[in-house]
Specification:
This protein is mainly beta and 162 residues long. It has one domain: Pnp Oxidase, Chain A (Roll), CATH 2.30.110. It has 3 helices and 9 strands, in the order ββββαβααββββ. The strands form 2 sheets. A 7-stranded antiparallel sheet has the order 2-1-5-8-9-4-3. The protein has a two-stranded antiparallel ribbon with strand order 6-7. Strand 1 and strand 2 form a beta hairpin. The longest helix has 9 residues. The model has no long low-confidence stretch (mean pLDDT 93).
């Protein structure tokens, strides 16, 4: 027999995600995002949810783009820092000496130590509650070559993601 559980606070996504973005002045930032999901297969779209008070929120809102980065388990120190410090208080990229490069299609940084990076262009957003949901078209997916088969499929079972 089942008992009534406490109020559901949040489902934990797998894998864990880091969203990187850049403001109009060219400053990079990244934050851990707990609300990430597929939205559509054709066209390929995803969604991230960001609390409007977060430092990165205005960057995504104003530029209309971001990158979803999927970190490996060995990136836990950086992941924890990105999830517990605000870009308002300092440059997180400099504090962690993060390796990055410019995305191909969107004006945002790619975290090159993450084996999967997904460039996204916002097509709409909605604020149904605590998080603004940014629905975005996937522009390009970058995957470290050791995790892609000869047909271009991602070898998810080989990735050691968080």
């Amino acid at each position: 027999m089942k008992k009534e559980g406490k109020k559901l606070l949040s489902l934990q996504p797998v894998p864990q995600t880091i969203v990187s973005c850049r403001d109009k002045e060219g400053r990079n930032n990244a934050l851990v995002v707990g609300f990430t999901a597929n939205v559509s297969l054709d066209p390929v779209m995803v969604m991230v949810g960001i609390v409007p008070t977060r430092f990165s929120h205005h960057m995504v809102k104003k530029t209309g783009c971001f990158v979803i980065n999927l970190p490996k388990k060995g990136f836990k120190k950086e992941y924890d820092y990105l999830g517990s410090h605000s870009g308002r208080d300092g440059d997180k990229f400099a504090a962690l000496n993060l390796k990055w490069e410019d995305a191909t299609y969107v004006n945002a940084p790619i975290l090159t130590d993450c084996p999967v990076n997904i460039e996204c262009s916002v097509i709409e957003s909605t604020l149904p509650g605590t998080h603004e949901l940014f629905i975005a078209k996937v522009e390009k997916v970058h995957v470290d070559e050791g995790y892609v088969d000869k047909n271009g499929n991602i070898l998810w079972d080989k990735l050691d993601l968080m």
